[in-house]
């Protein structure tokens, strides 16, 4: 099962778009919302998307507060589930793709660590049954040239 959560951009505030492996999309933002309109993701996909939205929110906020010039944040979650009931998540990797200008790796690692250990209640709760791993990549944004 896979899920990608994408921050919709610095001008859009704290909105995130989750795209589930089964092809559904859910818009998330900082305030908890109940469900989506005309969308029907599977319940376990919603758990995965919720964890992705939770950690993406944390990482973006921590980096912004640290005055890092972040312009994009995608989190791709890859999970495995138990084969027997209850089919809980047993392993989840959170892969962060961060785009910005001169993002410091130590700031990114700190933000991911704080989210994993302290702030993201969704992933902390999932860690009760799943081994949580993280990975990241930083993509340097180049200055756009005027047309």
Could you characterize the architecture of this molecule?
By secondary structure, the chain is an alpha+beta fold. It has one domain: 2-Layer Sandwich (GMP Synthetase, Chain A, domain 3). 30% of the residues lie in helices and 35% in strands. The chain has a six-stranded mixed beta sheet, with helices on one face. Helix 1 crosses helix 2. The radius of gyration is 15 Å and the shape is globular.
Entry summary:
This protein has 147 residues and is of the alpha+beta class. It has three helices and six strands, in the order E-E-E-H-E-E-H-H-E.
The domain count comes to: 1
Architecture per CATH nomenclature, i.e. the level-2 architecture: 2-Layer Sandwich
Give the N-to-C terminal Cα separation. 42 Å
| CA-atom Rg in angstroms | 15 Å
Please report the total strand number as a whole number: 6
CATH fold category name: GMP Synthetase, Chain A, domain 3
Number of helices: 3
Helicity level, as a percent range?
A: 25-40%
CATH homologous superfamily designation: K homology (KH) domain
Low-confidence stretches: 30-40
Tell me, rounded to a whole number, the average pLDDT.
85
Shape: globular
CATH class: Alpha Beta
Strands ordered across the widest β-sheet: 3-2-1-4-5-6
Content of β-strand: 25-35%
For the report, how would you describe the main beta sheet? 6 strands, mixed
Element string (H = helix, E = strand): EEEHEEHHE
Judged by helices, strands and strand pairing, the structural class is alpha+beta
